[in-house]
């Protein structure tokens, strides 16, 4: 047998397996391409391309409006000296024989059943005479711009001055403001035709007179030349009984399946829930971002609702993005905060109806400050407490009540600031004094302290200070100016815990500030106080204010 015949037999026996690839989770896929020496009778100085494709798309959780299943492929290549080949509407494997050795560029377009190009890719390689060299082409969805078409519905009777704020938030770059148009009562629409392709987080909020009533968040994907359409039904915006049904059909490929656990459908005011998000293990690392009624919250795998949520309906959304931003998904939970129907008696009530200060376990008064029961200080009944102040710096005038066995409490008291003799009048320099706090007496730690501030212009609730295991002076600024000659209700919430501690403040039944998700389990709730702590020399002798109806309970009181 001649040397040439032996070489031919060897080449005929040299079978090279085509490379198959798994689908990438970003809806891109690999087209394996092998350059083979001819297994048929061709010029040994030429080369051959064998093109093979595996199905690049998997089943979708949310199907886009366009068919993203490849039906066939267009292959083309350009090489040295103007050499070229092409195959149209082809199904792999496809063989291009007798190609000139040299540098080649191969382009692949994937098309659906309608003939629309849904993905493309390009790769360059060098062919050598009589040799095979595999290459891989990554084919990705077509980049460009698409259309977003969103409609929002609500009951016209629920609003008097409705408006919409909305944004598309891409993985990178600046948010895109969406200008909704309200053409008819109860309906708002937006259509944008120049939205970049890719994943976006859409955040929509319905406002009434500038006040947020409801919001929602979804993840959508925009595809070149296609329309992402959806609807938001906001028929429950804290004004009517019912449930929110959001029907959004975003155009997406391979969305992340996001799940929630720990959610509660309904709970009372002053209570809370902790919700955790998860994705299938094969998804890999993701970043979670939480939204409450469309307002962005801190990222993390879990979220604890603040204990000071007012009565109403809420929508909690979580959005998950992969590290490279190429995949995303979302989940939602609608819940309701109800009136707390607790009918049990508070842990204790201090109302001065004994005509003295005996309801307190102890009083702290120094250097001319006074704390007395007085008929003029009453809010209800026959007596209240009059807190008399002096000009001595660092003096105190308050009552203390001891507590044991509680890891969370609500402290409520009522305060009256007289306009004719209010503390710190005519003082140009601001200063702080504390009117109520929750304390760990053993550690001398103020778990929650409410400070007031006064100057020549006004008197206000200044800030809520709370302690954690790591920082004893965490500050939540309130800056709520109080009306003189009016009784005001103040309520402070304190919870001790490891990772689920919380504080909150209500003024006249309205939630103002809160903090959750920290740790303060190094401490215990041992006492509450009401009155004036840490006075300074910015008050004058004889100034005063009133306190009445002090209550402590394990449930929200107002």
Please describe what this structure looks like.
The chain is an all-beta fold. The protein folds into 3 domains: 3-141, Immunoglobulin-like (Sandwich), CATH 2.60.40; 145-338, Immunoglobulin-like, CATH 2.60.40; 348-553, Jelly Rolls (Sandwich). It is 2% helix and 51% strand. The chain is built from 1 helix and 39 strands. The chain has one helix at 3-13, and strands at residues 29-36, 47-51, 72-78, 84-90, 94-99, 102-111, 117-127, 133-141, 145-154, 162-170, 176-177, 181-184, 187-196, 198-208, 211-222, 227-234, 259-261, 266-268, 274-278, 286-292, 295-296, 302-304, 312-322, 328-338, 348-350, 362-365, 370-374, 384-388, 397-402, 408-416, 431-440, 445-454, 459-466, 474-481, 487-495, 501-507, 510-518, 527-533, 544-553. The strands form 7 sheets. The protein has an 8-stranded antiparallel sheet with strand order 4-3-6-7-8-1-2-5, with no helix packed on it. Strands 25, 27, 28, 30, 35, 36, 37 and 39 form an 8-stranded antiparallel sheet that branches. The chain has a 7-stranded antiparallel sheet with strand order 26-29-38-31-32-33-34, with no helix packed on it. Strand 3 (72-78) and strand 4 form a beta hairpin. The protein is elongated, with a radius of gyration of 35 Å. The model is unreliable at 1-42, 54-63, 240-253 and 424-431 (pLDDT under 50).
Q: How is this structure best summarized?
A:
The chain is 2% helix and 51% strand. It has 558 residues and is mainly β. A hairpin with a 2-residue loop joins strand 36 (501-507) and strand 37 (510-518).
